[in-house]
Amino acid sequence: MKAGAWGPISIAIAGLSYVLALLAMQGVFEGSSGACGDFGFRCLGNGILLLGVGCLIGTVCAIVAFSRTGPRSWLSWLGLLMNGLPLLAFVVVFFLIAMR
Q1: CA–CA distances in Å: residue 34 to residues 26, 39, 57, 58, 85
Q2: 60, 7 in Cβ contact below 8 A?
Q3: Environment class of residue 61 by beta-carbon count within 10 Å: exposed (0-12), middle (13-18) or buried (19+)?
Q4: Please, where are the H alpha helices in the chain?
Q5: CB-based contacts of 77, cutoff 8 Å, min separation 6
Q6: How confident is the model over 24-76, as pLDDT tens digits?
Q7: pLDDT at position 95
Q8: What confidence score (pLDDT) does residue 59 get?
Q9: How many CA atoms lie within 13 A of 100 on its CB side?
Q10: How many other CB atoms are found less than 10 A from the CB of residue 78?
């Protein structure tokens, strides 16, 4: 694969994981929003899981883009930002829950 292709791939993975997570949180994959429980917590877990896995894969792609193109590629930085910030938020929340 070309060296410059990893940055746009990581951005596309971030966008796709955002869209899939939003759809999962609305209950699209459950058949109806009524299948999400009283407050939607069943679908919330599915959305968080989809977003976490997608951002993890996108972060790996962004790191590969950095190793191939160097730190001057703005697409690599954008991919790392779009995938790394939700992952960082997950780590902070899990750390705060663990420290409770």
Answers
A1: 10, 9, 31, 31, 31
A2: no
A3: buried
A4: 6-25, 41-69, 74-98
A5: 71
A6: 888 887 776 567 776 667 788 888 999 999 999 999 999 998 888 877 788 88
A7: 94
A8: 94
A9: 7
A10: 17
Q: 3-class DSSP state for residue 26?
A: coil
pLDDT score at 96: 94
Structure-token match 């746009």, residue found: 8
Report the largest interatomic distance among the alpha carbons of the chain, rounded to a whole angstrom: 48
Residue 46 CA to residue 66 CA, distance in Å, equals 30
Cα distance between residue 54 and residue 37, in whole Å: 24
Structure tokens at 53: 């896995």
Q: Which has the closest alpha carbon to 14: 89, 83, 87, 90?
A: 83
